[in-house]
Amino acid sequence: MKNETIQRPDRRAVLARCAMAGAATLAGSAAWLAPTSRAHAQAAARPRVSLTVGYIDTSINGVGVIAAANKLDLWAKSGIDVKLIPFTNGPTQIQAMAAGSLDIGYVGGGAIWMPASGQAVLITPNEKTFGDFLLARPDSGIRSVQDMRGKKVGVPDGGSGEMILTLALEAAGMTMKDIQRIPLDPPNVVSAFVAGQIDVAAIFSPLANQIRERLPNTVVIANNKDFPKTEFIGAWVASKQALASKPEAVQRFLEVWQQVNDYRLKNPKEVVAWASAASGAPAAQLQGQVDALEWFPSSQILADNKSGATRQRFVTMQELFVKLGRIKTPAAPDAFINTDLFNKAMESRK
After folding, report:
1. For the structural domain made of 132-226, what CATH number should be given?
2. What CATH superfamily is the domain 47-129+231-348?
3. If you write DSSP's letter for every residue of 253-304 in order, what string do you get?
4. Of 47, 111, 117, 319, which one has the fewest beta carbons inside 10 Å?
């Protein structure tokens, strides 16, 4: 076997290659860090703003947005000094806005009647939900809406359960007079249904999920998907005072929201985990909410704003609330829907 001399690499050449590799690595790192650096530079270039933001702490659409914004450090990057306040529902946030103690909040579809009656301004749709149901007990003999005549129907006042019930009755050529309407608080709908005190529940998720878990043979009579022309849209809203006195701050909130929105579309399980850790709500419950909704990409919302689709979604909901008697004097669409700030926020982030 021929002996071969192992050539030692030239030390200066090795050092030169290492220097070149190091420079390349640093350049790559700089490129990777550039967006964050630019974001901080942009935040530093703009005066800081202050906002008080409310959210529902058991809703993936509320606490999920807040938890993701916190984890991604988006408040600081957008130059926002934020005060975050948890709520249990949407209406109390609207009341806080009226009292001047809240700038921005999240409301589910059942509370959209409040901005639609002029009490706040919708600044972006958040989700379309499919989590509202008419459920019949397995032993009730009810298999259709027509079978509900004369039956006891438990429904919370003023929420999306009432909305799904109204749509289903109307489609069947019926009214509330054709049933025994039993107004109940949401948790009591579940207990009354399981105990056999009512025949039908008009209820929303996650409570609808609880009923179906406890009575697996529960019959689904109607769901949002049966009424595609009336979408149940949850939304982020701003007080009229905030829009008048600090529109720049509201726009920056929307910049944060848009980044969270597109992040959660790609990373829903991560956002569920963050929301669960932040609120204490069970991850399975939050994931159940995700499974029963649709989030819109920010680019789609921008296109819908320009085409008028966003406006029409909310006007259609307003018309339903008029039928329900929740709204006696409908607000003009321009008075309760603001798409301009969303569009400006998208432009600002380019």
Report:
1. 3.40.190.10
2. Periplasmic binding protein-like II (3.40.190.10)
3. HHHHHHHHHHHHHH-HHHHHHHHHHHH---HHHHHHHHHTEEEPPHHHHHHH
4. 47
pLDDT at 238: 98
Q: CA–CA distance from 100 to each of 104, 160, 302 (Å)?
A: 11, 27, 29
How far is Cα 267 from Cα 278, in angstroms, rounded to an integer?
17
**Is residue 23 predicted with pLDDT exceeding 60?**
no
Render the burial of 26-64: b for 16+ CB within 10 Å, e for the rest: eeeeeeeeeeeeebeeebeeeeebebbbbbbbbbbbbbb
Tokens describing residue 41: 């530079």
Extents of the domains making up the chain: 47-129+231-348, 132-226
d(Cα 237, Cα 331) in Å, to the nearest integer?
Answer: 15
Helix (H) or strand (E) holding 333, with range, is helix 333-336
Q: Most distant CA pair in the chain: distance in Å?
A: 103
Side by side, which strands form the sheet with 121-129? 80-87, 49-56, 104-107, 233-238, 121-129, 293-295
Crossing angle of the two packed helices 247-266 and 63-71, in degrees rounded to 10? 90
The two tokens of residue 332 are 């003009």
Closest CA to 336 of 124, 106, 116, 126: 116
Overall pTM > 0.85: no
User: In 99-246, which ranges are continuous DSSP H helix?
Assistant: 113-116, 160-171, 186-194, 207-214, 240-245
pLDDT in tens, 293-322: 999 999 999 999 999 999 999 999 999 999
In the three-class reduction of DSSP (H, G, I as helix; E, B as strand; rest coil), residue 197 is classed as coil
Structure tokens at 99: 């009292």
Two tokens at 205?
Answer: 């998720």
Angle subtended by helix axes 247-266 and 268-279, to nearest 10: 120
Task: Check: CB of residue 103 under 8 Å from CB of residue 290.
Answer: no
At 56, which amino acid appears?
Answer: I
